[in-house]
Specification:
By secondary structure, this protein is mostly helical. The chain is built from 31 helices and no strands. Helix 10 runs antiparallel to helix 11, helix 13 packs antiparallel against helix 14 and helix 23 packs parallel to helix 25.
């Protein structure tokens, strides 16, 4: 029967007299739909149909798609030229378009353009002509031949009827080509007053500026930057800064650059450098206008406090970079960071010092400034940024209390997966056990150990708990620590040792079977003994716990005892 079905072409994977079966082509189509071009080519190569057979055109389409998915651009080009004249004209055009688009995607725009030009010349009235012309102007643009791209674009629009494109992305693309070709008025008209595409808004603003309509450009940029729900606020503020230099003055430019850094921009180092340059320009201008004596840093700082805002920050930045003494520069840097924080620009403060060329990634800053930058980054929930600054503080300034600082850094390190480094900070605190006498501080310290437990860093957490145990004398605190140490041992798979610690926690004063803490500790000890295969001892502990808790707890204990009994029977039956 199988032979008969195969001969008829009805078994999947077996071609009949007509070449590839429908099942073969369906399989290849599903592979292409899943992006598996290489696999589809293998399927299509098994028993390809001959040109002229009913399945050939579908096979040819799938092969072209699979070649394009695989990135076999040259092979696709050869295949496009080999499609026989007996195939439908529509298929021949379609395969050649696939080849041209693949060449364009692969970075061969000239080759793609020549292939498309042959299509246009051979079939000027074909329904696909607008699509070919669109790819031709894209090819010219990819080559940087903007005038030719604009010419091809005009021809494309004539074929399409001359109206604006329905798709906002296409309108933006065409407007950019016209702008690069020096046809700004046409580009602006194509975009309209309210571009719908995300790239259309900044393009329109730049077009207005290039047409000397700077006032309109600035107003639109400002409105875009302050627009609720704007997905690119940093980019918008950077555009405001570009236009503010001429339209609104240095004050507005400084403020816009600060906002751009706070909101986030690609390649922030370039914006940081521009911000420091704008600070210095504004600072020098203000220093001249205010007749501030050169070299008298205290007068500059005093005037900065009086002015506030971008002007005050510009004066502080001037001293931070060019102050006559190290003390004045440090003072100005600290004040500038605080001013930015108060203005809601904490991210800007960090970037200015982290990316500023004068500060070598922050290494040129005093420890006190680094401490403050770490604190404001932490307050803003920018944890990676906070740890960046905290990691660069080796010796704490006298003004900073050591224990809270090390504890804060330890917790940050642990939260960000730097477990060993976090443990080192905790050890610094344990070196002076008196710091743990304060119960509130001790709880904060222990929270870091709990974070280590949560991250399954049981060995590190165990060492921390052990260190605290040695440092405290209160019975309640020590029995809790024994319990947590038992959890760490259990997490390490050291169940016998875990049971011992749980039992010590249970028996620690004031411990009794009826004691709630002690009952929980004994229960955990019984569980650990069971896992250590100490079945009899575990059952004894479970039995002692019966009747000391609630009815539901008793039922849970009884179930565990029954399970232990079953395991004991299985063990006794093993040879």
């Amino acid at each position: 029967m199988a032979v008969t079905l195969a001969a008829m072409g009805l078994l999947p994977g077996l071609g009949g007299p007509g070449g590839a079966s429908a099942a073969d082509l369906d399989t290849a189509a599903s592979q292409v739909a899943s992006g598996l071009g290489s696999l589809a080519l293998e399927t299509l190569a098994e028993e390809p149909p001959e040109p002229g057979e009913a399945a050939w055109e579908r096979w040819a389409r799938l092969r072209a798609q699979a070649l394009r998915q695989k990135g076999a651009v040259e092979e696709l080009g050869r295949f496009a030229e080999s499609v026989p004249e007996s195939a439908s004209a529509e298929l021949r055009r379609w395969v050649r378009l696939q080849a041209a688009e693949a060449e364009l995607e692969a970075g061969s725009p000239a080759q793609a353009r020549r292939r498309l030009a042959r299509l246009v010349a051979a079939h000027p009235g074909a329904p696909e002509a607008p699509q070919w012309l669109r790819q031709i102007y894209r090819a010219y643009a990819a080559e940087g031949r903007w005038q030719d791209a604009a010419t091809a674009l005009r021809r494309h629009r004539e074929v399409e009827g001359g109206g604006p494109p329905e798709e906002s992305s296409v309108a933006t693309e065409q407007a950019r080509i016209l702008m690069r070709a020096g046809e700004e008025e046409d580009a602006l008209a194509l975009l309209g007053e309210e571009p719908r595409h995300p790239e259309g808004r900044p393009l329109r603003i730049r077009l207005l500026a290039s047409l000397d309509r700077t006032g309109e450009a600035y107003e639109e940029a400002q409105a875009w930057a302050e627009e609720s729900g704007n997905p690119q606020p940093g980019r918008a503020w950077r555009l405001v800064a570009d236009l503010a230099g001429e339209q609104e003055g240095l004050d507005a430019r400084v403020a816009a650059l600060e906002r751009a850094l706070q909101e986030g921009v690609p390649q922030p180092a370039a914006v940081v450098e521009r911000t420091w340059e704008a600070y210095l320009q504004l600072g020098e201008l203000l220093g001249s206008e205010e007749e501030l004596p050169a070299g008298e840093d205290a007068a500059w700082i005093e005037r900065a406090d009086e002015l506030g805002g971008p002007q005050g920050r510009a004066l502080l930045a001037h001293v931070a970079l060019l102050g006559g003494s190290a003390e004045a520069r440090t003072d100005a840097r600290l004040r500038l960071a605080r001013e930015l924080e108060e203005a809601g620009l904490d991210g800007t403060a960090s970037l200015l010092y982290r990316k500023g060329p004068a500060f070598e990634g922050g290494e040129a800053l005093s420890p006190l400034v680094r401490v403050h930058l770490g604190r404001i980054a932490q307050a803003g929930e920018r944890l990676e940024d906070a740890l960046y600054w905290m990691d660069r503080v080796e010796e704490l300034p006298e003004e900073v209390k050591a224990a809270p600082w090390w504890l804060t850094r330890a917790r940050l390190r642990v939260r960000l997966g730097r477990y060993a480094a976090g443990a080192e900070d905790l050890e610094r605190i344990l070196d002076e056990p008196g710091r743990l006498s304060d119960s509130q501080f001790r709880q904060q310290f222990l929270q870091v150990a709990f974070d280590l437990q949560q991250a399954e860093r049981y060995a590190t957490a165990l060492e921390v708990f052990r260190g605290v145990y040695e440092a405290v004398e209160k019975d309640k605190a020590r029995r809790e620590l024994l319990y947590w140490m038992g959890e760490c041992r259990a997490g390490l798979g050291e169940h016998r040792e875990a049971a011992n610690l749980f039992l010590r926690s249970a028996a620690h004063r004031p411990g009794s079977v009826a004691d709630r803490w002690g009952r929980t500790a004994r229960f955990q000890a019984a569980r650990s003994l069971a896992k250590a295969r100490r079945t009899e001892e575990a059952r004894r502990l479970f039995r002692d716990l019966l009747g000391t808790g609630t009815a539901s707890q008793d039922r849970a204990i009884q179930r565990r005892m029954n399970r232990l009994m079953g395991e004991a029977v299985e063990d006794s039956e093993r040879p």
